Predict the 3D structure of the following.
Amino acid sequence: MFLLKQYLNLSIKSFLEPVKNNKNLRKIAIIIGCHGSKDEGFQENLQYFINKIKQSFNNIDIFSCFVEINHPSIDECLEKVTSSYEKIIFSPLLILNGEHYKFDIISKIKLFEKKFKKKIHITESIKIKSELITLYTNFFLPKIKKNYSKILITVTSKTKNNLAKNNIESFISILSNRLGIDNICAIEFGSEEKAFEKIRIMLKGKEKVQFFLNPIFLFNGFLYKKTIERFSKNFKGELLVSKPLIKQKEINNLFKEKIKNSFLQIKI
């Protein structure tokens, strides 16, 4: 773990070296942008994902940047990369296109496009209501048992964005229908106490219960770990937990496919 942390810190400090040492414009770069976290699980997952992307695009320079907490920032990365590469593909590593997507990514990309008079191609987002639905249905459906009461619990990060909220509501409705689960509890991280109250009411008179806990988080970071910890401490029964998205082959392939589609758009 210590060596991994050293490696990650070195990567963060030196990730712009190819740009700094390059006097001429290079052809193309891929930027992976995500939120950021101090959690070691997040750092491990991110490095795993970037390595997978590098394997698929081994002749392309790939950079990572962060909305907050970690470095380099989105501004630092865009400043260096946009000034040094002819064409740039930006892949936001986010699930909910909420405030961070709108203000920390899209708005900043527009500023740098204007500054350098250069188009930055943003990859298509993961489709919550179709691509994620299929993934979670395939994970939970084989685990459903007859003669058990079932409760579907979905936890997401907080968002003020109405479109993101509507997408989550639609997602939960479709997923619960596909799984045949009527007892649903959907919350944002930090609202667990309200969820516990609601679930206790659902549990009245029920003996055999399956809990389908669905934390919709990319990384095995603080939010994911804390969600599992809080629910496992408060309820007895069979707890089935979906995995962090970034370690799943299907999600990695989706991100790769969306980057490949951007290559077609910019006619490399």
In short: The chain has a mean pLDDT of 86. The radius of gyration is 20 Å. The longest strand covers residues 26-34. The longest helix spans residues 99-116.
